[in-house]
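I have been asked to look over a protein record a colleague put together. The record follows directly below this note.
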Amino acid sequence: MSHVTKAKKWEQEQRQKLEKVYKLYGSRMFYRAMQILNQREDAEDAVQNCIIAISRHTDCIDLDNEAKTLSFVYTVISHCAIDIYRKNKRNRQSNVNIDDITEQAGNVDIENEVFVSMELKRVVEEIKKLDFTYREVLSLFYLNEMNPREISDLLGLPYNTVRSKINRGRKKLLKSLDGKE
């Protein structure tokens, strides 16, 4: 078999793998993007960007291991949606005039918004410092907003184990946050 034939066969296999991933997880990708973006058009763009990103890393797709593949797809779609969210946010900020800002300033507590943003960054940094066992479930629970049942299904762990890890991880997280106040 020639090198060209092998390359075409490999390319066809990768295309089929992507099509299968889209068929299996397309609706979940769209749902996750909608959770982040709240706009249909942007969510559709995020799914398209996700498929393109996944096509560059088809070696990470293991269709025999659904939990691993789903985790990979959720991570990629979340990143794609967040990228679009940030891009939209930058565009909105650059298109705002000073009158709009002063008008909205009376309605929004800017200091509180900054405080909440700083606290969120602090919590994320502390989650990153935890053991992988707790970091994984807390990231899925708090940052990906998945419930314990979804986490259980995704990771292939018993439901009560996931709940225990969330509770233990939360205690460790609160302990580390209290130590830094």
In short: The CA atoms of residues 14 and 57 lie 10 Å apart. Confidence is low (pLDDT under 50) at residues 101-108. Helices lie at 3-37, 40-55, 66-94, 98-105, 110-129, 132-143, 148-155, 159-178.
